Amino acid sequence: MDAIESLIEGYRAFRSGTYSQNVERYRELGEKVQKPKALIIACCDSRADPAMVFSADPGELFVVRNVANLVPPYEPDTHYHGTSAAIEFGIEGLGIQDLIVMGHARCGGINALYESTKGNPPKGDFVSGWMSLVKNVADDVQKTHAHLDPAQMVRMMEMRAVVSSLEQLRTFPFIREREADGRLRLHGWFYGIATGLLSIYDPKTDRFSELE
Ligand SMILES: [Zn+2]
Question: pTM for this one?
Fold first, then answer.
């Protein structure tokens, strides 16, 4: 079966299964404004889908996905800031009170960043520039964790990039203000595709630890 056939088959299964068993719920979702519980910034990676990891139903998660789940700095200029627009809409427009940056293992974007530091930048017009948002993370990890083997180093970069994105979020005035007065909580999480395990960032210890 090709990709499109399998999508159409999946759609038919959704219509006759989940949708037809929850018609009333879908009707309600379509008529009322959305009230998601959390905003999640995740990677485009097809293996790290927040709705799957958190067993979430439609309407529960407001998800922004981009390469390597990065947050750009607050730059209100004339450029096209898709991620910043989604963050603004989720926090200011929908009033979401929990914002999670979810990194993941075996991230292609972070691997491209690591390879760039070895003199092999990715081909193409956009990934390299986008990943330069966390070039400082790659440089820091290489300085402070020079003893790690390449796989461990990439893992450290994946995790530290989550922390860097949390810091970037705080360059947005509406995030800083809401976090300061308790209307918003920021979280750094990491999903280990092969293990299915979630790790949580603790700002007190500056480390990630697996959820019990
Ligand atoms: Zn990724």
Answer: 0.96
Average pLDDT for 101-111: 98
Q: Write out the residue range of the structural domain in which residue 82 sits.
A: 34-210
How confident is the model over 201-205, as a mean pLDDT?
98
Residues 7 and 39 in one domain: no
Q: Quick one: three-class SS letters along the chain?
A: CCHHHHHHHHHHHHHHHHHHHCHHHHHHHHHCCCCCCEEEEEECCCCCCHHHHCCCCCCCEEEEEEHHHCCCCCCCCCCCCHHHHHHHHHHHHCCCCEEEEEEECCCHHHHHHHHHHCCCCCCCCCHHHHHHHHHHHHHHHHHHCCCCCHHHHHHHHHHHHHHHHHHHHCCCHHHHHHHHCCCCEEEEEEEECCCCEEEEEECCCCEEEECC
Is the model's pLDDT at 212 over the cut of 90? Answer: no
How far is ligand 1, taken at its centre, from the CA of residue 69, in Å? 7
Both 86 and 171 in a single domain? yes
Residue 103 and residue 22 share a domain: no
Q: Which CATH number does the domain housing residue 104 bear?
A: 3.40.1050.10
Residues 27-43: tens digit of each pLDDT? 999 999 999 999 999 99
Ligand 1 centroid–CA 65 distance in Å is 9
CA of 111 to the centre of ligand 1 (A): 9
Residues 11, 81 within the same domain: no
Say if residue 121 is in the same domain as residue 84: yes
